[in-house]
Specification:
Strand order of the largest sheet: 4-13-12-11-10-7-6-5
Oligomer: single chain
Largest sheet: 8 strands, parallel
Distance between the termini: 75 Å
Length: 566
């Protein structure tokens, strides 16, 4: 009985009507054959929908699913008279989504008749071209990730699949993403849900994301297990290890996967019991201070056999990030990389308040991390990745210009495997089989077809980036600087990003002379021994730090700065 799904009700109806009209034609009049032919044709259409492998909607919704493609075909005309513009972002515009679909399917991605954007609108951005452009070269842009303590550095593409867990994504979606990554020679972040069999089947390079639940490397009590970590980390597929401190979708928020959803496959990937509630705490238990975090990184690097180890974070309290920077100086331990996740990022469902009002947007967060590393003289040792609504080659160019070494995209690759932004990810009723554990729904997502689209989207986006760079007279994304990107900040007023996000000089923070207010205010508050500030922000802003510190029994200015050389 379970086979007779409500999703197929229209298909069942046309079959019944076909039989009814045949009966009427035989018993009463051949006139009824016209109806039999119509509904017979629809029945054949439904059978074709069920067996075809190109379109997930039609496989999940035979007959009626074709209406989506019909309405999509007339959408430009309907939109022109009734609906939104192509550039309206909800949260991704139709223009952005169409571009991904075109590049994933290797269709023409050119646009006639000029831009649809308002180039005089506040916040409009562009890349400044050169009067001495060059020919676009090889678009397989790569960077080497691995600091002085890393013995197995990794050559990483500048565009990779951002963290999305099996469980949030279907098994078929993970298979398609990983196979696409293998075909295109780029990396696939596992997400904090652990490395499932779907991540391993096609041999794509993996960035193992380890969150506070330590899925795949935990003991029976949920604590970090060195033995289980070392066993997984030394496998060939795992190229880098990423400790997730926080994420853009819901920074500072834990999660609970109800036991009813902990299937045998999810339990195997996460290393938890089947059918038991699975908790992801809001904070880590393996470390509690910035120094302990860096010691944990060094230990993971050793246990993995020298592979690159870093962490991912969304910026919140700036003094907490500064505390990690000071811990690098005090211990001499540096991560091999840091991934900065903007507040606009995130594929998973989260409370509305967290989605809209928690965390620092990517551009400001990225610039803070980049400048801090420059200011303490460690930028060359630590690579920076960035994620948060990165879809187009221009999104990449702007992000790389602000200081990133590479970009991660989650929703871009979701679009490539068929996501239509239905925004039902948290319901288990994803119409394309991308974000669901329903075996019948995810069966509609055909791995062989969608994996090619993943590889195509990656390749064609990097080709577009190569063309942008060539127009600016550049050969590699690492040559991009903030002055290459301009932004309209008001009518008749334009700034290059280097004016909006000034550079720090190498080692500048070590001198104790702070040109920027955020460093002047928050850097002295940070301490390597704790994520807690030495005194309150209110005290810093009011200039009463000495009084409040004395009242709280905290040492004076001299002792506060002893952990920063120079």
């Amino acid at each position: 009985m379970q086979y007779f799904s409500a999703r197929h009700s229209v298909f069942y109806a046309v079959i019944v009507l076909t039989g009814l009209f045949i009966f009427l034609a035989v018993e009463f009049s051949p006139v009824w054959l016209a109806g039999a032919l119509v509904f017979g044709a629809l029945s054949v259409r439904g059978i074709i929908d069920l067996v075809q492998t190109r379109q997930a909607i039609r496989r999940n919704y035979p007959v009626i699913g074709n209406m989506r493609y019909f309405f999509e075909s007339i959408r430009p005309e309907m939109r022109q008279y009734f609906f939104e513009s192509d550039t309206e972002k909800l949260p991704f515009s139709r223009t952005d989504r169409s571009l991904v679909y075109q590049r994933a399917k290797k269709q023409a991605d050119k646009r006639p008749f000029g831009t649809q954007g308002d180039v005089y609108q506040t916040s409009f951005e562009w890349i400044n071209h050169s009067l001495e452009p060059i020919e676009p070269g090889n678009s397989d842009f790569r960077i080497q990730v691995g600091g002085p303590a890393c013995t197995q550095p990794y050559s990483l593409s500048v565009l990779n699949i951002s963290a999305m867990s099996f469980g949030a994504l279907s098994g078929n979606a993970v298979l398609a993403l990983n196979k696409g990554a293998a075909m295109g020679n780029f990396a696939h972040d596992s997400g904090e849900g652990g490395i499932s069999r779907y991540h391993l089947e096609h041999g794509g390079d993996l960035i193992w994301n380890i969150g506070s639940g330590y899925f795949g490397c935990r003991d029976s009590e949920g604590n970090f297990s060195e033995e289980r970590f070392a066993e997984r980390a030394r496998t060939t597929n795992v190229k880098m290890i990423e400790i997730k401190l926080s994420q853009g979708a819901k920074p500072g928020h834990g999660g609970m996967l109800p036991g009813a959803k902990v299937t045998p496959e999810i339990a195997a990937a996460r290393g938890v019991p089947v059918g038991i509630d699975c908790n992801s705490p809001p904070r880590h238990s393996a470390f509690t201070t910035p120094i302990e975090l860096l010691e944990f990184i060094a230990r993971l690097r050793e246990l993995s056999g020298g592979k690159p180890v870093g962490f991912k974070l969304a910026i919140g309290h700036p003094w907490e990030w500064f505390a990690i920077a000071k811990a690098m100086l005090k211990t001499g331990i540096t991560p091999d990389f840091i991934v900065v996740d903007g507040a606009e990022g995130g594929t998973g469902a989260a409370p509305v308040e967290f989605v809209d009002h928690v965390g620092t947007p990517l551009r400001e967060a990225l610039r803070l991390v980049h400048n801090t590393l420059v200011g303490i003289g460690l930028r060359e040792q630590v690579k920076i990745g960035a994620s948060g609504k990165i879809i187009t080659a221009f999104d990449m160019a702007r992000t790389l210009a602000l200081g990133a070494d590479w970009c991660n995209s989650a929703r871009g690759f979701m679009f490539a495997v068929g996501c239509i932004q239905a925004q039902t990810c948290h319901t288990g009723k994803c119409p394309t089989g991308v974000a669901t554990q329903d075996p019948r729904r995810q069966k509609a997502l055909v791995v062989e077809d969608k994996s090619r689209r993943v590889a195509n989207f990656h390749h064609n986006t990097l080709d577009a980036l190569a063309e942008l760079l060539a127009a600016a007279g550049l050969r590699h994304p690492q040559e991009l600087r903030p002055h290459h990107i301009a932004k309209r900040i008001a009518s008749g007023e334009i700034r290059v990003l280097s004016a909006l996000f000034p550079d720090l000089e190498k080692g500048e923070l070590l001198t104790g002379k702070f040109r920027s207010s955020i460093y002047r205010t928050a850097w002295p508050m940070a301490q390597a021994e704790s994520f807690a500030p030495l005194y309150s922000l209110s005290a810093a802003l009011s200039g009463n730090t000495a009084t409040i510190m004395a009242g709280e029994g905290v040492a004076g200015e001299e002792s506060r700065t002893t952990d920063v050389p120079g």
